[in-house]
Amino acid sequence: MLIGVPKYEHPEFPPIPAALNSLQAVRDLLLDSALCGWKDHQVTVIDDVSSAEKLIVQVANLVKSVTGNLLLYLVGHGTLSMSGELCLVMPHTQPEYPKYTGLVWRDLAEVLLLSPAKARITILDCCFAGQAIEALGTGDAQILADLTQVNGFYTLTATTRNRTAHVVPLGEQTTKPTSFTEHLCDVVRSGIPGRTPHLTLNDIYPVLRTRLQAKGLPLPDQRGTDTAGHAVFARNMAATPAPVEPTISGNSVILDDTENPFEERVSRLVAAWAARDRGQDWLVTGRALFALYLWWWHDNKRTAGALTQAYVEHSYDSFGGKAGWVALLNQRARCACHNETWRVGNISICLNCLRYQCYQAPRECGGCGGHVVG
User: Fold this and answer.
1) Beta-strand (E) ranges in the chain?
2) pTM of the model
3) Which domains does the chain have, with CATH numbers?
4) For 51, 221, 241, 263, which has the most beta carbons within 10 A of its beta carbon?
5) Which candidate, 325, 361, 330, places its Cα nearest to that of 345?
6) Helical H segments across 240-285, by residue range
7) Which residues pair with 198 in a beta bridge?
8) pLDDT at residue 58, as a whole number
């Protein structure tokens, strides 16, 4: 959900044309299939806010149906009430009465509790946005303090509690987003060298902070539970490509011939390997070896013939023996049952569809009904 307020009635709050550019920049980022991969129907843009009351109801109706990851991005003016609460400035906000004519952040945060989402992520690009984080530890805002105990909350702010956000001069805003949003999008689009193939907000934050500091811009802030901070936000465009698994006939038989039972695939492969002088090109590696080894170890170690055992052992040795196996187990893979990332060593695999499963998964694949080993 992307919310922007670009125009205001009171002259104390100058217009922010860059807010509309920021909304477009974040929307483009989320919908980019090479980066965040959101679908068009999953992104709602609100750029015609009329009042705090109507916005609160609109947000409440939207968040109630979100069960995956909920992202709320808001760009516009922010101000502080007499008691120091962060108030998001609405089009009709009066500067002397921000608490009564604006949108109090505490109220918006409370609405997010209505969502059953696994991760509730808020990005605030406004002045004094850091006050939303400061409030998390104060007794005066118990609802915000409670959020730190709720699984799956994360807040990223453009500034600390006593700083205004930065935007280029009004005359340059026709094509530019706000400074915070521009650098946030740049970090995601350029990627972070040395990180995993997928970036989380915990990965993005320190790089974003360093870039803003180098430019002399206001520093961002963050707060949240580990579960939300570790939610995958985008693909890492600067990640080192994973080594390409060699395409060899052994792997092809195990991985591609899913029309036949796993045992038949193994028998055909072992027979072909023996008939061709036990050549290296007929051995298996990577995911195919993982499936074969678990199949042999858990279910067939005692009953498999000597030739099958020799094939498994030769594949294991060819893959690097213990060192290669440990390296494989320390890789990370996404399970099909809950779409979560695990070490391969903590994952099971279906011998029918060859999809990874959580290690707690039952012995019958939820996707195809095949036998799960691991």
Assistant:
1) 2-4, 45-46, 69-75, 78-80, 86-88, 103-104, 119-125, 153-157, 198-200, 221-224, 232-235, 332-334, 341-343, 347-350, 356-358, 372-373
2) 0.62
3) 2-235 (3.40.50.1460), 249-373 (no CATH)
4) 221
5) 330
6) 249-256, 262-275
7) 235
8) 92
